[in-house]
Amino acid sequence: MTHPTPAAAPVSTRDRLLDAAAELFYREGVGVGIDALCRRAGVSKRSMYQLFGSKDEVVAASLDRMAPAYQALLLPPADDDRPPRARILHVFERLEKSAAEPDFRGCPFVAAAVEVKSPEHPASLVARRNKDALTAFFRREAERAGAADPALLARQLTIAFDGSSAQAVVQARGLDGLAVATAAALLDAAGLRARPED
Amino acid sequence: MTHPTPAAAPVSTRDRLLDAAAELFYREGVGVGIDALCRRAGVSKRSMYQLFGSKDEVVAASLDRMAPAYQALLLPPADDDRPPRARILHVFERLEKSAAEPDFRGCPFVAAAVEVKSPEHPASLVARRNKDALTAFFRREAERAGAADPALLARQLTIAFDGSSAQAVVQARGLDGLAVATAAALLDAAGLRARPED
DNA sequence: GTCACCGTAAACCGATCGGTTTCCCTCGCG
DNA sequence: CGCGAGGGAAACCGATCGGTTTACGGTGAC
């Protein structure tokens, strides 16, 4: 490979725009104007409207772009061979850690879905898809652990996740073990103790 | 009593404004303009800025005004003499019922706090205060039921409440028993079975 | 060399933003 | 009857909204 991206372009215009969008929309809400966004991203409005048909599409695309990083932040590494219970609680430990930071504004997907209101908004579709991915992770681990109803447990854990996020946002302070404790209580209620016994 | 409110004034200007504000801000978000709000409320901007110093104060005041109705919708009546577990689950049954309606947009307090972003925004203070009221209800019932750690259980139940709300918003469909099941699981994990035995 | 492409800068559009001000009408009350 | 307060209608303010357009610059491929 020579240099298909000519070395003087460290990131594409599209990526620069979407990275700035993800950060701005998360920090200040999707209500920020496209002038402010393009100024921050160092991208002209012309380029933006060449890449995307509307601001709504930019919102959705920026959510989509930051999704892998968000999942990597929360989920345990693939080579983590701890038992399912530990892998599940890992997510809540990470949530508590990020919720303790002063610029925490809750789950970006939930925030976007709440702000745009419409369930048909492209950003809502992205949010739904990514919430499903988190639930799917929980379900796989619940299955591995031999839960009686893995799908139910997974949805309860997703509720604990989003509820903990909301709590941290409204109370404007860290969770102090509450998220982990709630997830653990749900695991206990489902009959999953520390020893998965398989 | 003669007629202190002169019969030709079914509701005050202030109440008309705040009722319209609560409905509009919930349905479309706090981003709606004051022109649209005043048009809907049948109140002039002049009157609005005489009653409130800024739009932010209107947002906070509208949340404050609808709070009693919201609590009445969720909490069991005072003369309900069912055991604590049933009174707690009552809240989640009501949540599921309202989440099934197509115009459900989640908890209005959480939505407002998420939208305004700033924890110091007057609306965030109102949201915090009202979330604390729900947690306080849970804690009172948990104490009555003899929970080992009523404060912890109450916060877990609040998490289940907000998480269920978020789930319904993101998935854009009803909860189908999930909220009640999650709350019940938390009650089970806390050792509170159907019989409070005191 | 030059041509085509990608991108920026900036003007421009009508509409709306939060907020202020002026004018006028309609009451209740003395 | 007169008067003052309350409140609606609407003009007005500068700024910004989402979105389009024109004009120009730099750069790689041929």
Furnish the topology, listing elements before pairings.
Two copies of one chain form a homodimer.
Chain A: H1 13-28, H2 34-41, H3 45-51, H4 55-74, H5 84-99, H6 108-116, H7 122-144, H8 150-171, H9 178-189
The first copy, chain A, binds a DNA duplex (30 and 30 nucleotides) through residues 6, 8, 13, 33-36, 42-47, 49-50, 54-55.
Question: Can you tell me about this structure?
Answer:
2 copies of one chain form a homodimer. With 198 residues, chain A is an all-alpha fold. Chain A has helices at residues 13-28, 34-41, 45-51, 55-74, 84-99, 108-116, 122-144, 150-171, 178-189. The longest helix of chain A has 23 residues, at 122-144. The model of chain A is unreliable at 1-9 (pLDDT under 50). The A-B interface holds A 27-29, 31, 105-107, 109-111, 113-115, 117, 119, 124, 127-128, 131, 152, 155-156, 158-167, 169-172, 178-179, 181-182, 185-186, 188-190 and B 27-29, 31, 105-107, 109-111, 113-115, 117, 119, 124, 127-128, 131, 152, 155-156, 158-167, 169-172, 178-179, 181-182, 185-186, 188-190.
**What is the total tally of β strands of chain A?**
0
In quaternary terms, these chains amount to: homodimer
- The low-confidence parts of chain A are 1-9
Intertermini distance of chain A:
47 Å
* Rg measurement of chain A, Å: 19 Å
The greatest interface here is: A-B, 45 and 45 residues
Structure classification of chain A: mainly alpha
- Provide the helix percentage of chain A: 55-70%
What is the typical, i.e. mean, pLDDT of chain A? Answer: 93
How much of the sequence lies in strands of chain A comes to under 5%
Largest sheet of chain A: none
Number of helices of chain A: 9
**Could you say which overall geometry of chain A the principal axes of the C-alpha atoms support?**
elongated
Helix-strand topology string of chain A: HHHHHHHHH
